[in-house]
Amino acid sequence: MSNLYDSDTVDQAERANVILATCCLSLLLVTMDVTIINVALPAIRADLHASVAGLQWSIDGYTVVVASFLLLAGSTADRVGRRRTFQAGLALFTLGSLLCSLARTTSALIAFRMCQALGGAMLNPVAMSIIVNTFTDPKERARAIGIWGAVFGISMAIGPLVGGYLTENVGWRAIFWINLPVGALALALTARFIPESRAPKPRRVDLVGQGLIVVALASLTSGVIDGRRVGWGSPVIAASFLVAAMSAVALVLYETRRVEPLIDMRFFRSVPFAAATLVAVIAFAAFSGFLFLNSLYLQEARGLSASRAGLCTLPIALALVICSPLSGRLVAAGHARIALVVAGVSMAIAGLLLTDLANDTPLWHLLVAYGIFGIGLGMVNAPITNTAVSGMPRAQAGLAAAVASTSRQVGASLGVALAGSIAGGGIQAAHAAGFAAATHPVWHLVVGYGVAVAVLGLASTGAWAKASAQRVAYLLDDAPTVAAAPDAPLVQVAD
Fold it and tell me: Are 378 and 244 contained in the same domain?
C-alpha cells in the first residue's frame, strides 16, 4: 500500500510539472512575441514597403489588444472553464502566427497581429489561474510561480536574439513560424494533462467597462502614432484624444457604480497601487521605445545585419537574467524601494548615454548603455507587482496584479507610439543620415522616464504610502474574491 501511495504521489507531481511546463510554453509564446518582431522591422519595412506608422502599429496593434482584454479573459475563463479558454487562446494565437507569416501588406500584418494578441490575452491570466489551482501547497506554488517569473524574463530577453537569427538566415516570416510547433505542442499537452476548472463564484461580465477600455486605448494610441503624419492640430487627431479622454472619464464614472466592477477604482486610493500602475506604464514605455528605435538604428543607420543587431541586445538579455532574480530577493527581503530606485537610476543613465547618439558611436558605448538599461528593466518587474498588491486583501491581490500587468502593456503601446512620433521624419527613410540625431529627444524622454520611476519608488514605499494602502485594504476587505492574475506576485509581500 505504501508503494502504491508513493507511486501515486510521484505521478501527481509529474503531472503537475507537465502542467507547469505547458503554461510556461504559453508564456514563452506571448512574451517572446512582444520583442522578437523588433529586430525584423527593417526587413518587414523593405518587403512590405511599410511606413514608420505601419511599423509602430505592427507592434502596438498587438500590445493594445492584449492590454484591452487581459481582465476580460481572466473572468471569462473562471466562468466557461480555464482549460477551454486556454485551448482557445493557444489555437487563436497559433492561427494568428500562421496568418502573420503569410501577410502580403502592412495592413494585413497588423490585422493578423491583433488576432495573435486576442489569443495571447487568453493565455497568461488563465495559465496563472491553472498554476495556482494545480499547486495547492504554498511552497510548491511559490516554486512554480518562481519558475514562471524566470521564463518571463528569459523569453523577453531572447526575443531579439532569436528574431535576428531567423530574420537573417531564413527571413522575417520565420519569426512567426517558430510559434507553430510550440503552439501545437502546448495544445496537445493541454488536452492530455490539464483538467478543466472553474471559479466557484465567477465575476459578472462587464461589457460596458470592457468596451470603454478598448476605445480609450485605441483612440489614444492612434492619436499619438498619427499625430506627426496628419498634424497635431488636425481635427482628426484632436477627436482621437477627445474620444480617449471621454472614454476614460466614462470608465471611471461607470465602474464606481458597479457592484462587481472590471476595475475597482478604490484601488487607486492606495498610493502603492497607484504608483505601481504608473511605474509599470513608464518602465515599459521606456523599454518598448528603447527597443523599437535601437532595432532600426543598428540596422538602418549602422548597416548591421539582423543577427548582429540581435547579438547587440545580448547585454540587455544578460542583465535581465541576472537582475530579475536579484530583484525578487530584494523585494522578498522588504527592499522594494532599493529595487525601484536602482531600476529608475539605471534607465536614466542608459538614456543619458544615448542623448548624443551618432551613426558612428563606438559599439562598446552602445553595449554599455544597453547593459545598464537591462539592469533597470530586470530590477523593475518584481517590485511593480509587489507594490501593486502591497497591503491589499488576499481576495483582491489577483485583480490588483492583473491591473499592473495591463499597465505594462499600455506602457509598451505608448512607448512605441511616442518614440516613433517624436523621432519623426528622421527615421522615415532607410539609412537616413540624420537617423541618430532624430532619436535624441526620445533619449532625453527615457532619462525622464528613469527619474520618474526612481521618484515613484521612493514615494510608494514610505510609511505614508503604506498607511494609505491599509486604509484601502479596510474598504476592500469584504469585496468578492477575484481570479488569479497573469503576473501574480512572485514573492511574499513584506510588511
Answer: no
